[in-house]
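Lab notebook page, bench 4
Experiment: in silico fold of construct C2
Operator: M.H.
Input chain length: 353 residues
Purpose: comparison with the prior construct
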Amino acid sequence: MQLPSFLIPLDVSLEKNIILERFKESYPDYAPLIGDDLGVLMDCFVYRLNRYINYINYTIANNYLEFSSGEYLDSLVGLAGLKRFLGTPFIAQLKIKTTQPITLPKGTKFKDNKAHNAYLSQDESIDGEGIVSVELEDGLRDDFETISLEIPHIYISSIEKLTPFTQEKAPESDTDLKKRFLAYLATPSTAGNYKSYEYFSSIPQITQSKIIHRGLGEVEVIYSPKTADALEKLKESLQDKIPLTDQVYYTQATEIPIDLTITLTIKDNSQNTQIIQSVNDNIRGLFASLGIGENITESKIIAGSFVDTLIVNISVNGLKEATPKGILKLENLSILTQTQQTKNTENMGENNA
């Protein structure tokens, strides 16, 4: 174990002699014997003391960049807002065969029978057969047979794993992280840390916020207010945390109202009410999870609407794209159902999201 020169290891022999001399002050006639009870007890005490001193020295040493490593180094560079690059995800290729054209949204969950999970890398449309990429769950590094969908899809006939999970780029080493940290310290600061602004913008009066660095020393805080005094409270929260070199601009996120119509083609009307309610819950949940500037794809809405085997086709109308400073708000959701012979329309009404 490497230590700075000012951290001195415990001198075990010296410590034992000091304890023995102190003991003789109370028991002057004591003559130490090999293996006597006091000697054994003293050895045990000094052994534990030595281990504890080593632990303290090791912990102190890790507060210095030259001697820091692992989680200690992560915490040290984190003071400057840096994070270790964890490497690229472990990715495998799957071949999926279907009986009908389907769309799987990004994040579709695959699993094996031992609680290992992988997730679809991007939205995929598959007609008959397709090869897709899945990313292994964070924290897992081995190869696993994640070829089962968490939620079975009625139109998928088989899933085959074509390649093992491999990582294109390994995690950043301690040496490389130290070099990047020193390079960061040598670079003049241009604006406060993202994480700091995000943390101090998380106040009860704000629904959500987004931080943008415009350029040298210019930061824009985009926020979605929950109360009338949101801007005032946001400025108060950030007031004494803003670096002297930063100029902060505040922008209220623009709500983009969505009047969405989903048309379901179904085999029959036997489960209309249950189907419509399930689709309504799923789609409203998707919109509620969106952040500022985040979009939702038509394929994801379609995937969230396939809630029953009676559904054979889905169409979506009224979807808009979010702007970088806008947030999609589902104002009205209409869910229509139709069979091949007739149309039966049911509207979830003009409810607010």
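Observations: The first strand starts at residue 90 and ends at 98. Residues 344-353 have pLDDT under 50 and may be disordered.
Next step: discuss at group meeting.
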